[in-house]
Amino acid sequence: MHENTDPARLVDDLVSLLTVEPTDDHHWQAKPQPGGVGRVFGGQVIAQALQAAQGTVGDGKIAHSLHAYFLRGGKEGPPIDLRIARDFDGRSFSNRRVVASQSGEPILNLTASFQRPETGIEHQQSSMPTVTPPEELVSDQELRRKMVEKRRDDMSEAQLAILLRPRPIEIRSPDARHWTNTEPREAQLESWFRTVAPLPDDPALHRAVIAYASDYTLLGTSALPHGLSWMRNEIVGASLDHAIWFHRDARADEWLLYSTDSPWSGSGRGFNRGSIYDRKGRLVASVAQEGVMRRQKG
């Protein structure tokens, strides 16, 4: 079903996907996912918009935060136009707005802030959770294969394609996902992630890949207390917004722990938070997202 399973090729394809090109002073263009079907992955559009914004900022400034709103579901196939507004350039900070569009219709608005690196007073209030190391865990890819072996006859071709598609990001978790869990449980999830092969030594690219990966596992955390899953067609969901604060540089091709929780759901929405740590326990990034979460009718 899937020909491309070589880790290095998968990561090369991810780097190519996140490499955006300027078409004029105010527009950049992002490539579609090769062979993509259905909706565009939200993390992809966020990462591509961030890459465009990063490409317009000089003076050694680096992205420290972004805030995005998903407006429409993007379609796989058509390229994505990224319109840039250079709102502010100061001595220490710069700000960019990006509107991602397909066929003339906006699908995402993103604002990113950049800062010239400087030293300052430091503290870290949160500690990295103590969890099973990734070397002792089974990958999500293997769990998906086992699920397909048990439930292949109950799955549509679209579900099979999603579950079996090789991914450039490897995820390993000691916790049960919403798609493997049918019993209500605490809205807390720990997941290790990294690219399946090394990335180039480009800090801006690593930030983009972390932004890309931050859209995995997050929204599903709010489904855990209900024992429901999108993969079993029990709920309908879609991301509404996404915010990231980058606290320090980190390599996305080395294991990072993504600790997510959901303090609230209601009114057809679920709210989720995430903290990303490196193997030394240092807080790399913080994430927040709200999404639609409705019980499937019928």
Molecular structure report:
With 298 residues, the chain is of the alpha+beta class. The chain has a single domain, classed as Porin (Beta Barrel), CATH 2.40.160.210. 18% of the residues lie in helices and 35% in strands. Strands 1, 2, 3, 4, 5, 6, 7, 8, 9, 10, 11, 12 and 13 form a 13-stranded antiparallel β-sheet that branches. The longest helix is centred in the first third of the chain and has 13 residues. The chain is globular, with a radius of gyration of 19 Å.
How would a textbook summarize the main sheet?
A: 13 strands, antiparallel
What is the 3D shape? Answer: globular
Kindly report the oligomeric state of this protein. single chain
> What are the low-pLDDT stretches, counting only 5+ consecutive residues below 50?
none
CATH uppermost class: Mainly Beta
Number of E-state strands: 13
Q: Helix and strand succession?
A: HEEHEEEEHHEEHEEEEE
Helix segment tally: 5
Q: Could you tell me the mean pLDDT?
A: 92
Characteristics:
single chain, 298 residues, alpha+beta, Porin, 18% helix
How is the secondary structure organized here?
Blueprint lengths: L6 H11 L3 E4 L2 E4 L11 H13 L7 E9 L9 E10 L3 E10 L2 E11 L24 H12 L5 H8 L4 E4 L15 E8 L7 H11 L21 E5 L1 E6 L9 E11 L2 E9 L5 E13 L3
Antiparallel strand pairs: 1-2, 2-4, 3-6, 3-10, 4-5, 5-6, 7-8, 8-11, 9-13, 10-13, 11-12, 12-13
